[in-house]
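Milestone M4 deliverable, item 7.
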Amino acid sequence: MSLVFDYKATTLLRGLMLGMHKSNQRGTGSDFYKKSSFLDEPDTSRLDLNASLTDPFEGLHVKTFRQRSKLDVQIFVDGSSSMLYADKIKHIQQLFDSIHQSVEAASDHFYGYLMTQSLSTIDSASTLQQAFSDIRPEQNRAESYIKLPQVNLPRPSLVFIISDFHWPEKQLEAMMTLLSSHLVVPVVVWSNAEYADYPLWRFVEVTDLETGKSRLVFVSRRQKNAIEQRYQQRKHYLNQQFRRFNQRPFWLTDHYDPRDMSRYFAMQ
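Output delivered:
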């Protein structure tokens, strides 16, 4: 199955660089916009003979087109320790590759970064895999988000943030504020193994991947329900926070399908 999906960001497309996306920029494009008076847009190369000859007031008319523009697409991948849990890395690589292929298919500009203690440039899924293999399984909290102002974002871009968003409230709000001038797609990567797959009536070793600390927990039905409820509350909280910044998250749990991403943008 192809990993390419269709994306759009019409509100961002005001640049003069020609590309494949429909925009609001008038120019020498192929997308017909409207008919205008020749006095408003005096360009003889776009003269509409049919409208001009049939005008009872003998006015001249021209055709107005909208050009197609290029788009800057930025990907910021959370490299904190909790992203190493279960099969998250596999799904992140597939999503990264899907975005990369889609951007190339649209002839847009692609920029990828991994956020750990430092901000690293990532240009392919294989580079991302290698970078993840170098991450220590504790004491890594993607604190390089504070370096986002150093990234070259010369104009509003389409920004994907790939994370499980197990971040402190201040970190989440700070990053959303830094990117508030861009069209942001928060991709929330969760695994059922985090909250739904605990076996009942057994001791389970639970490890906090952010700190590396482990402890034994006896899982009763009450505790399992409490864990699941906690995640539902977290999901509700994240939806509310993203809504504050006029963003709609894409939820990725244990499976990625590029058709779901196409549907996501179709609803924008």
